Structures are given as C-alpha cells and as structure tokens.
C-alpha cells in the first residue's frame, strides 16, 4: 500500500486545531514570526503529542502585521537570528513535553521566496545545519539551492492539497481567483493524482511531473476539517495510507 505524509500548519490562531490534528502525520507550528507565543506553541506541541503527530517548526519572516505573507529584505544575520529564535520556541516546548522536533517548514513569503533566491534557500539550509539536529526540511518543489544540501539534511518536497499551481509549480497568488481550493472531492482528485501519478494539473490545465513527499492542507482554509475528513477517507478507500509513524 502506498503511504503519504499528511501535514498541516497549526498554532496560527485557528479554532479547529484539535479537530484537525487526528488526521495528520505531521504539523508545522507557528512560532512567533507570523503568529504565535510561548503559550500557543506549547499548546500545539502538547496536542501533537496527544495524537502522536510529528512536530515541526514553522518559522517565517518576522512580520506579525502581514502574517508573514509579504517578502521582507533583511540582513542575513538578522534573518538567521530570527529564524533560530522562532525554532527555539518550538524546540523548548518539545523538550517540555518530551517529543522530538522532526522538521522545519518555512512559512508564507519566506517559503515562496526560497524558489526565487538560491541565497535565501541556502540560508534556510544553513540555519537547519546550525541546529546540529536530525531535522527534515519541508521545501517547495524546484528550489535551486546555491550549493548541494548537506547529506545530513533530508529534503521533503511538499505539495499543497488546497492551493492552485502555476505552470512553473509556483503557487497561484492568494489575491487571484481560484487560488485556494475548497471542494473536498476536487481536492481528493488533485491529491490522488499527486501521489499515485506524480503529476499536478496547473490552473492553466497543463499536467506537470512532480514527486511529492508530503501533502499540506492549510488550517485556515475555512472548511479544512471537511477537506481532511473527505481526503483521508477517500485516500484510504483508494489504497493510500496516511503515515502515522
């Protein structure tokens, strides 16, 4: 049976984290850059432990005002310090609840900018390397890292269940029509094609080859619970198991 890692961005102020968590393999916890405090991070990590969900840090540009969804130019030293501080919040909570920090997933504009800037993509890798931990990087597809990534940092290519893609596999901006998918049945068909056939259909109708290691559903998509419930049920019926290790 095919197995897939299913993840969600949590600890971002949504009301339904507790409902979403049981469906997931892994979660990405906002850690103060775009949202989050010590208390929200601890609550999310505690919830992840309860449901045996892998914990990841979800750092972003330090931009609470814009929820981390606008690009910011910062000196590399300052951005690195901010990312380390954000990851520290999650790592401290992991130590408190005796769970492992599994991965790092950049958020919002920082995530998307990794595709545009090899220098920025490598800065993210350097931050992970400096943690001296066995951490996975959740990355968008087709990132041109400036240098070969250290073999000690596994890179999992992430696909989005509830977002439309452009022909170059960048995400359709949220400001554009149909950028966010809401129909659970359409989302299942999209994800099934991603996993089983390693293809994505762009918003312009082009089918693009791409293998994904993990699939994300956004917790702030209004019907995220309905999407996850339908998605996990339909994947199971079609021979795809959600990784719950």
From TrEMBL:
InterPro entries: Glyco_hydro/deAcase_b/a-brl, LamB/YcsF/PxpA-like. GO terms for biological process: carbohydrate metabolic process. CDD domains: LamB_YcsF_like_1 (cd10801). Pfam families: LamB_YcsF. It comes from the Bacteria. PANTHER family: 5-OXOPROLINASE SUBUNIT A, UNCHARACTERIZED PROTEIN YBGL-RELATED. This is Lactam utilization LamB-like protein. It comes from Psychroflexus torquis (strain ATCC 700755 / CIP 106069 / ACAM 623). The lineage of its organism: Bacteria, Pseudomonadati, Bacteroidota, Flavobacteriia, Flavobacteriales.
């Amino acid at each position: 049976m095919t197995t897939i890692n299913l993840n969600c961005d949590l600890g971002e102020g949504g009301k339904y984290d507790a409902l979403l968590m049981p469906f997931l393999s892994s979660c990405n916890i906002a850690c103060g850059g775009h949202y989050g405090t010590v208390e929200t991070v601890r609550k999310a990590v505690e919830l992840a432990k309860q449901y045996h969900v892998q914990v990841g840090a979800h750092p972003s540009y330090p931009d609470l005002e814009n929820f981390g969804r606008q690009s910011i130019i910062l000196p590399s030293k300052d951005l690195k310090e901010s990312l380390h501080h954000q990851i520290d919040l999650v790592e401290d909570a992991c130590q408190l609840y005796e769970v492992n920090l599994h991965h790092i997933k950049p958020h919002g504009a920082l995530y998307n900018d990794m595709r545009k800037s090899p220098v920025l993509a490598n800065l993210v890798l350097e931050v992970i390397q400096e943690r001296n931990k066995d951490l996975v990087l959740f990355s968008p597809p087709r990132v041109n890292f400036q240098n070969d990534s250290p073999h000690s940092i596994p890179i999992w290519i992430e696909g989005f269940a509830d977002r439309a893609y452009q022909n170059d596999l960048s995400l359709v901006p949220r400001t554009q029509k149909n950028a966010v998918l809401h129909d659970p049945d359409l989302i299942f068909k999209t994800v099934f094609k991603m996993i089983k056939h390693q293809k994505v259909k762009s918003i312009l109708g082009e089918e693009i080859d791409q293998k994904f290691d993990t699939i994300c559903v956004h917790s702030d998509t209004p019907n995220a619970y309905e999407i996850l419930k339908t998605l996990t049920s339909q994947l199971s019926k079609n021979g795809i198991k959600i990784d719950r290790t």
